[in-house]
Write a structure and sequence with these properties.
14 strands, Rossmann fold, 33% strand, 2 domains, 305 residues, alpha/beta, 10 helices
């Protein structure tokens, strides 16, 4: 096969930092729309399968999305051990839903997403990711502003999963990453429950968002742990924040975790197991130092001291 047969039909750029580009080769544009919230593309890439792109930022690709979604969902689920009620904010692709539904004890999953057009496009074009999770009878999908929906519910959730675009460029999700909103979420978290937040890149050149989020969450929750793993299509190590009212053992016995996963889930995990969880729980030195030495937080989406 000659080199011409490997040439993409177009290239799409993503700024990793204001000075660095990650360039992806695209074979086909499957969907494109401009909604009140986002400009969305769903594309077929040459290397990583289908991808969702929002406002020029790559959200996930079908070949490696399991690395992101398993790291986002399962540390909280494992820590709680018997989750029944799960609240998801965001999660357009449905892959977060898919991972939550692996847990046999789960009785109810409420997914709130503001952009119904993006969710519908993902349902139609990204079956590889959601694997028909939207059709599971345990799932309730609500298209609404997550900022307002908590005003009309008093239900308590064992796990809250925060799968929204990190607060950049004053996007729609920015008010949801504030101290005030995290306080509201804490009010609907079950006693002993866990919240996990998609918390941005931990690359040294982009570390501020992650650090500000960790420090903001620590004004609301007594225990917050920064965890991370590498997402190839993001070109970076990616951070998450696991939050709780009580400390969690960050050096779990891998054998015990593996036994729990075997008993409590339907299997099929490709990233998370006992050894992997032990590894991602260990926060790198430079991240711990930045969290300790920087004190700014997000308050009504103003960075304050």
């Amino acid at each position: 096969m000659n080199a011409q047969e490997h040439q993409p039909v177009l290239w799409m750029n993503e700024y990793v930092t204001p000075w660095d580009l990650y360039i992806h080769g695209i074979n086909q544009i499957l969907a494109h729309t401009i909604t009140p919230y986002h400009e969305m593309y769903i594309v077929e890439t040459g290397a990583y399968g289908k991808a969702l792109i929002l406002d020029g930022r790559w959200q996930s690709c079908s070949i490696d999305e399991f690395i992101y979604h398993e790291a986002l969902v399962h540390p909280a689920m494992i820590s709680y051990k018997h989750p029944r009620n799960v609240l998801i904010l965001g999660g357009s692709e449905g892959a977060t839903l898919r991972e939550v539904l692996r847990w046999k004890n789960v009785k109810k999953v409420w997914m709130i997403n503001p952009d119904g057009e993006v969710v519908e496009a993902c349902r139609q074009n990204l079956v590889e990711m959601h694997q028909n999770a939207f059709d599971d009878p345990r799932v309730e999908l609500t298209i609404a502003d997550p900022l307002l929906i908590l005003e009309i519910t008093s239900k308590q959730w064992d796990i809250i999963i925060f799968d929204l675009i990190e607060p950049i460029n004053k996007k729609v999700s920015c008010p949801l990453f504030t101290q005030d909103y995290f306080k509201k979420l804490k009010q609907v978290l079950s006693p002993g429950g866990f919240m996990i937040v998609q918390a941005g890149s931990i690359a040294p050149a982009e570390l501020d968002i992650h650090v500000f989020l960790i420090n903001t969450l620590r004004t609301v929750f007594p225990w917050v742990n920064s965890i991370s793993n590498c997402i190839p299509t993001n070109g970076s190590f990616w951070g998450f924040a696991l939050c709780s009212e009580h400390p969690v053992n960050t050096k779990p016995d891998p054998t015990i975790v593996d036994r729990l996963l075997a008993e409590k889930t339907t299997g099929g995990l490709r990233f998370i197991d006992g050894k992997t969880l032990l590894g991602i729980f260990q926060t790198p030195t430079y991240v711990r130092h930045a969290i300790k030495t920087q004190t700014r937080i997000y308050d009504n989406f103003r960075k304050v001291t």
